[in-house]
Specification:
mainly alpha, 6 helices, 68% helix, globular
């Protein structure tokens, strides 16, 4: 459910998010963690229009919708951005931000 909420914040409709997660689970397994699921869905669905917001905003929304407090999400995204190159994709930024949140969500 948290992965579905993160995808909805990234522009997916509820039905499309559910369908995408089912497909992602077929690739990464049903016990995959949220960052893995979201990353897999984004990798499989590059057609989603994410240009409406900057990557940092989208990554922060994904973390907040996954249950992390806004302050922790913002700090994690900021730390992740400092760690990855400025041309790194959204998927990598989200993955690195999730790593920096730890298990506090």
């Amino acid at each position: 459910e948290q992965a579905k909420q993160a995808l909805k914040q990234l522009g997916f409709k509820a039905t499309a998010a559910k369908r995408a997660l089912e497909e992602a689970c077929a690739h990464v397994g049903t016990d995959a963690d949220i960052p893995t699921l979201v990353r897999q869905v984004l990798a499989m669905n590059r057609a989603v229009n994410l240009e409406d917001s900057d990557p940092e905003t989208l990554a922060k929304r994904a973390l907040v919708k996954s249950g992390y407090p806004t302050a922790i999400a913002a700090a994690a995204v900021s730390a992740a951005r400092a760690h990855v190159s400025t041309d790194a994709g959204l998927e990598l930024l989200i993955m690195e931000a999730f790593r920096r949140c730890g298990n506090r969500g």
